[in-house]
From TrEMBL:
Identification of the protein by name: Benzene 1,2-dioxygenase system ferredoxin-NAD(+) reductase subunit
GO cellular component entries: cytoplasm
Top-level taxon: Bacteria
Gene label: bedA_2
Taxonomy of the source species: Bacteria, Bacillati, Actinomycetota, Actinomycetes, Kitasatosporales
Organism per entry: Streptomyces chartreusis NRRL 3882
Keywords, comma-separated and alphabetical: Dioxygenase, FAD, Flavoprotein, Oxidoreductase
Essential cofactor(s): FAD
Catalytic activity, EC: 1.18.1.3
Record GO terms (molecular function): dioxygenase activity; ferredoxin-NAD+ reductase activity; oxidoreductase activity, acting on NAD(P)H
FAD/NAD(P)-binding domain mapped to chain residues: 6-294
């Protein structure tokens, strides 16, 4: 394939900025444009729940620098795309042409509020984090809806401030991701740090206008000074209406980050990896995948082979002061194949053997370099009996 004359990236995200830098690294000298709607410019999102909620000084450390790579940045949201004419229209009325397009618009926080219901708090942007941090300074109680990575990190930030916090979910903390074995230990640790957990029998709804509580399916109603929804994310694909590029899961890509439309590639939280007959469609909205896919999409846009896999299964979180690092496929099912140390003591190195022959390595409360975890995960282990 002939290298395109111009590359347009829609989304000033981690995936988008990674793609831009990698395009120049790979030798692309043609026009390069990023369309982004974020007024603060590109910044890293994982620290929002891990650091920004605790420390205002962290606000200044998040920026993803684009200096020195000769890129034109348009700060106006993309509102439409015409893949036949190869143009993208922005909210301020500009039409931007391209030879190759990389979709990197990420995702928005999934919301639970009813139409017109005010005051729902989420955590997806820097402004969200600043607002939540300000509210934490005066809150006497909190409810977090959702017990995934984000929900438990927000609950941990509340507990660190001494705010009584209740987490509501249909499953135990991180159970859908880390399985029964680690979920039970994390639940116990969170409880010891003042985080209460309620396992609902179904979906909770927000109450009050503005939001002041949660109603559970069994009729129980909870109220708090602060209610935060951490119920996942929704891919930002509205601007792609009519292109055939997106569905309810986002923008489907293959292992080269190519979409079903020639000349259009995608990376980051807006994507899902299309199934191949042996594996189902798979969403994995984590920062490590945003980086891997940004690089892959850049190479594919130039007609070059991918620099590596389009999926990088590395994740980390911190719950009640304990760090959990994971390399490998999720979810974790059943008992670990190997255990070094003690999970109950908060210091363990564990592995799980996956059905596809790969392994997942977990450093639970231990400081282990990511490279060491990758090496451990690359070791083929027999499945448990």
């Amino acid at each position: 394939m002939t290298a395109p004359r111009s590359v347009l990236i829609v989304g000033e995200s981690l995936a988008g900025t990674t793609a831009a830098r990698h395009l120049r690294t790979l030798g692309h000298t043609g026009p390069l444009t990023i369309i982004g709607a974020e007024e603060h410019g590109a910044y890293s999102r994982p620290p929002l729940s891990k650091v920004v909620l605790k420390d205002p000084a962290a606000d200044q450390t998040l920026g993803l620098v684009l200096d020195g790579i000769d890129v034109d940045v348009i700060r106006s949201a993309a509102v439409a795309a015409d893949t036949r004419r190869r143009t993208v229209t922005t909210a301020d009325g500009r039409q931007v042409g391209y030879d190759a397009l990389i979709v990197a618009t990420g995702a928005d926080a999934r919301r639970l509020a009813a139409p017109g219901q005010r005051g729902e708090l989420v955590l997806r942007t820097l402004d969200d984090a600043r607002q939540l941090r300000a509210r934490l300074a005066h809150a006497g109680s909190a409810i977090v809806v959702g017990a995934g990575f984000l929900g438990m990190e927000v609950a941990s930030a509340c507990a660190a401030r001494g705010i009584p916090v209740t987490v509501v979910d249909a499953d135990r903390p991180l159970e859908r991701i880390l399985g029964d074995h680690l979920s039970a230990e994390i639940t116990a640790r969170a409880s010891a740090h003042g985080i209460r957990f309620i396992q609902a029998t179904g979906f909770a709804t927000l109450t009050g206008d503005p939001v002041s509580g949660v109603a559970l399916p069994d009729g129980t109603e909870l109220t708090a000074d602060l209610v935060v929804t951490c119920a996942g994310e929704a891919p930002c694909v509205g601007w792609l209406a009519g292109t055939g590029l997106a569905d309810r899961l986002g923008v489907g890509i293959d292992h080269a980050c190519a979409t079903t439309v020639p000349g259009v590639f995608a990376a980051g939280d807006v994507t899902y990896l299309r199934g191949d007959g042996t594996r189902p469609d798979r969403r994995a909205p984590f920062w490590s995948n945003a980086v891997a896919q940004g690089r892959t999409a850049a190479a594919s846009a130039l007609g070059l082979p991918p620099p590596g896999p389009a999926q990088d299964d590395y994740f980390w979180t911190e719950v009640a002061g304990l760090t959990v690092k994971i390399v490998g496929r999720l979810p974790l099912l059943g008992e670990p194949t190997t255990v070094q140390g003690s999970v109950s003591d908060g210091r363990a190195l564990l592995t799980w053997s996956q059905a596809d022959g790969t392994s997942t390595a977990v450093a639970y409360g231990l400081r282990r370099p990511v490279a060491a975890l990758r090496a451990l995960a690359a070791t083929s282990l027999p499945p448990p009996p």
